[in-house]
Amino acid sequence: MNKLTITSAKLTGNPGASGWAQVHEFKPDDEIKLAKRGHLFAVVATGKQEEGVDSVIAGRELLSRLHEEYFGKLEGEPFNVLKSSVEKIIEEFKGSWGQVEVAAVAFLENVVYSAAGGGAQVTIFRNGMLAKILESRGEEVVSASGYPKEGDMLLLATKLFFEVVPNGVIKASLEVGEPENAAEAIAPSVHSRADSGSLGAVIIKFQAKTELAQMAEVKEVGVGQDVRMGTSGFAKLKNKISSLVKKLPERRIYVRGGQEEEVPIQRKKTMVTVGIVLLAILLISIAFGIRQKKINEEKGRYESRLTQAREEADEAIGLVTLNPERARELFASSRNIANKLKEEGVKDQTLNDLIKKLEGNQGAILGEYKVEPEQFLDLSILSDGLSGDDMSASASKIYVLDKKGKKVVGIALATKKTEVVAGPDQVGEAISLASYEDRVFILTSEGIFEIGEEKSKAIAKDWEGDVFPYAYAGNIYLLDTSARMIWRFAGVGKTFGSKQKWLGPGVAPDFSKTTSVTIDGSIWVLSASGKILKFNQGSPQNISGTGTFPEIISGDAIYSNEELSFVYILDKKGKRVVVLDKNAKYKAQYLSDKIAEVADLAVSEKEKKIILLSGSKIYSIAIKHL
Fold first, then answer.
1. Does the N-terminal peptide bond of residue 550 adopt cis geometry, omega within 30 degrees of 0?
2. Which of 105, 163, 251, 504 has its CA 20 to 30 A from that of 63?
3. What φ, ψ does residue 267 adopt, rounded to 5°?
4. Minimal CA–CA distance to 85: which of 60, 97, 103?
């Protein structure tokens, strides 16, 4: 893994009547302190300047207290200790200095911990983009932590810095690439002002420092050609060869009769053998260097991404109960990286372990459950050829409309007991179905009829285009797409009064792409694109921006009622049922290929079942998110 190193540059304004600012940097020599608290940077400032008071001494006093609070005790996590230290300093000095600004950052084991209060801010420059991490207001202290990437630049500064130095200047200066150069580029904008006393900033850049030694670099190997090896590999080989050479016997020459005579042939053979061994060692070392270099290059291609994915997965697991939305974001990012690495053909046990961890925590963090729906009921057993086209649920029963067979059947959820509510003589050319408690209604081209023991007209037709009826609390509500209105027909015993506008004055939503309606006290309207509208007492409710996770691909059916804690959406293209809370925030999703064939859904949280209608079959999914 690549460790990050940091370089930094500091910038302060001219102390005077407008206040003062100071910058502090401290990296402990004590290994224990360094391991527990890391490398600290801090910017402190105040707009108050008292005559006769040395701002340098005052600043040192404040920074000394910050140092004591943060490094004084080594118990506790750096994130919590840094935030509490900044809070204490602001509280202690506000009496004498008024508004005190503090921005502090600690860098420890490739993690940045940051805290800011009194108006100070922390921003990050990454991939050409400048983004705020922390922006404090008043005496409020905000904090964050994260994993910087190679090339990132962190800017912690006082409020005045961001007021007097335009974003364009900041961005252009940071694009220079080095903190010192960036500070020099910004300095003229600061020092030319007479009121820059409370302006202070630190620029920190993160760079990679490779821990693995560089292995052999081989251009070409051959007689008289250049062979280059990594420093570490070459040194080892050189030492080995030197050791072997020392053990070789010296070449001896004997003089006999005025002639030189070399050593015996046996010794020559020994020397040749040793030479061959040395050459073999050299070639093996080179080969090993090449192989190791390839391994390191391949690992370097994905290692930083794999490390990021592991860290995000661990952080997501730790945040699941504290911040579920942030946990889901981190988990999704980790899973995307892991899947991408797998697609690239990466073979690494660490990646395999990460994928297993993600799969094991998928349900708890994402609320994502891969399921196999169980058969709840086979409608064809009740009546030959019976197939469901539309479904309505009320209380403990569900009702199914078979348009072709012209039948409506009722099914008790708890016992699966079935009954035929109405046959062809009553159902006729029914378009859709609605129900409330034990009353069942059908929509036809002539109006809305109540069916059962007998058929009676409940509401005469006086609309054009598509409508969506829904029975609730003894009344019938009718969403009229052409009129862009929801009508309410008040129930009076077995009859219904004339239509009344349910939407408030001036409310005229676009209902043209509506696919489904449900009522739980509020009226929920689902469109084919997955867009959800919510109305309460005739007024639209602002649920834009809450979104779902992930985004709904197709909106096919929506279901809730006053007894349910959640809203359920059928997304056939996404092959899933998405669960939202009553504020339209994501809770869970159930995924199965079979869901692509489903026509409608109903839910009983009491029975812990999601009911799915798919032709002649009714399936159920066990609810796991409750």
1. yes
2. 163
3. -70, -35
4. 103
Among candidate residues 100, 91, 81, 93, the one with its CA nearest the CA of residue 19: 100
Instruction: Enter the DSSP assignment of 178.
Output: S
- Kindly give the pairing relationship between strand 586-591 and strand 368-370: parallel
Residues 6+ positions from 40 with CB-CB distance below 8 Å: 24, 25, 26, 27, 67, 70, 71, 104, 105, 106
How does pLDDT run across 420-453, given as a tens digit for each residue?
Answer: 999 999 999 999 999 998 999 999 999 999 999 9
Q: Out of 250-254, 314-318, 329-333, 449-453, give the one with best mean pLDDT.
A: 449-453
Question: Could you tell me which of 273, 125, 276 has the C-alpha nearest to residue 186?
Answer: 125
Give residue 222's identity as a one-letter amino acid code: G
Q: If you count them, how many residues does the chain have?
A: 626
Tokens at residue 374, please?
């169980």
* Residue 127 DSSP label: T
Tally of CB atoms within 10 A around 608: 14
Backbone conformation region of residue 473, classed left if phi is above 0, alpha if psi is from -120 to 50, else beta: left
Do the beta carbons of residue 290 and residue 136 sit within 8 Å?
no
Question: Which domains, and CATH codes, for the chain?
Answer: 3-209 (3.60.40.10), 233-252+262-366 (no CATH), 374-457+465-622 (2.120.10.30)
- How far apart CA 37 and CA 55 sit, in angstroms, is 28
CB atoms closer than 10 angstroms to residue 520: 18
Residue 368, judged by CB atoms within 10 A of its CB (0-12, 13-18, 19+), counts as buried
Which element (helix H / strand E) includes 36? helix 31-37
The 10s digit of each residue's pLDDT in 482-524 is 999 999 999 998 899 999 999 999 999 999 999 999 999 999 9
Report yes or no: 355 and 338 within 8 Å, Cβ to Cβ: yes
Rg (CA), the chain: 37
With a threshold of 0.70, does the pTM exceed it?
no
> Which tokens in the block code for residue 416?
């699966």
Q: What is the DSSP letter of 30?
A: S
